[in-house]
Amino acid sequence: MTIRKALLSAAILSSTLGSAAQAEEVNVYSFRQEFLLKPLLEAFTAETGIKVNVVFASKGLLERIEHEGRNTPADLLLTADIGPLHDAVERDLVAPISSEVIDRNVPAHFRAEDGKWIGLTSRARIIYASTERVKEGEITSYEELADPKWKGRICTRSGKHTYNLSLIGSMIAHHGEAEAEKWLEGVKANLARKPQGNDRAQVKAIKEGVCDLALGNSYYYGKMATNEKEPEQKEWAASANLVFPNQDSRGTHMNISGAALTKYAPHPEAAVKLVEFLTEKKAQQLYAEANFEFPVRPNTPWSDLLEEKMSGFKGDEINLGKVAAQRANAAKLVDKVGFDN
C-alpha cells in the first residue's frame, strides 16, 4: 500500500506540475506587427512570469486556426481591425471572455456584446483636408463627401479595403443600405482618380495637388509627421488639416485593434490575464503611443502629438459589432456602384 500510495502521489504531483507548466505560457497569433507588441509582451512576462509565444503574420491566421481545429496551439488572436475579429466570430473560432477587469477598463462599444472580442486600441477614420484649398469648416461630415461641390477633389484607397468597408458599414448601420448606396455613388462621382494606394498615398496626393480631400486613419498623421527616415512625409502631413467628421451628430467613425480568445485555447486563463494586462493603464499608454493610436481605457494619457492635434473630438459610440455585421453588405455596395472602377 505504501508503494501504491507513493506512486499515486507521484502521479498526482507530476500531473499538477505539468498543468502548472502549461499555465505558465500563452500562445498568440498576431496580425499586429512585432515592434508594436514586443515591449508589452516582455513587460507582461516580467510582471507575471508567463511566457508569451507569438506567430506574426499579415494574413492566413484565421485559416490556420480553422485548419488546426481542436489541436490549435493558439490561445489568443490579435488583430489590427474589427474585420478579422468579426470574421473569427462568424467562423466560430473564438470563445467569450468574461472578466470584470476588462469590463471595467474597456467601454462597452469597444467590446462584443457576447464577449467574443475585445478592443485594445482605437483610431478614427478622418478626413484630411488641404490647408491651401479647403477652408476651415468647409466640410464637417462624411455625408458631405457626396456633395457635388467636391467633384474631382477626393482621393481614397480601395473601397474594398478593410478600413473603408468599416466606414461604409457604419453608414449602412446609421442610415440604412439604400441611403448608404446613394452616398457611396456620390462619393464615387467626386473622386479625383481611381482608388489606389494606402492612406499615406492619399495625403501625398493632397500635397501634390491631385485632390483636396482624402480619407485616412488618424494614426497615419503621427507616422508621417514624425518620419525621420522619409522626411518628405512630414511635408505631406503639414499639407493637410485634420477633420473629425460628424462632431455635431453621432461623432467620428472609430475602429479598433483587438483580441479574441480562441475556442480551443490550451491556456485560457493565461490568455485572459494577458488581455487584462493589455487593458490596464500602463500597457494602454505604451500600446497606443507605439502606433499613434488612442487608448480604449478612459482617462489614459495620450501621446503629446495626439494630445496637441486631436484631443477633444467625439467618437461614434455605436457598438462596432453592429458596424462589422454590415461589412459584407458594404462590399456588395462597393461592387454595385463600381467604386473601384
From TrEMBL:
Annotated keywords: Signal
Domain of life: Bacteria
CDD domains referenced in this protein's UniProt entry, alphabetically: PBP2_FutA1_ilke
Gene3D superfamilies the record matches: Periplasmic binding protein-like II
Pfam families the record matches: SBP_bac_6
Signal peptide: 1-23
InterPro entries: Ferric-bd
Similarity field: Belongs to the bacterial solute-binding protein 1 family.
Protein name, UniProt field: Iron ABC transporter substrate-binding protein
The species this protein was found in: Marinobacterium zhoushanense
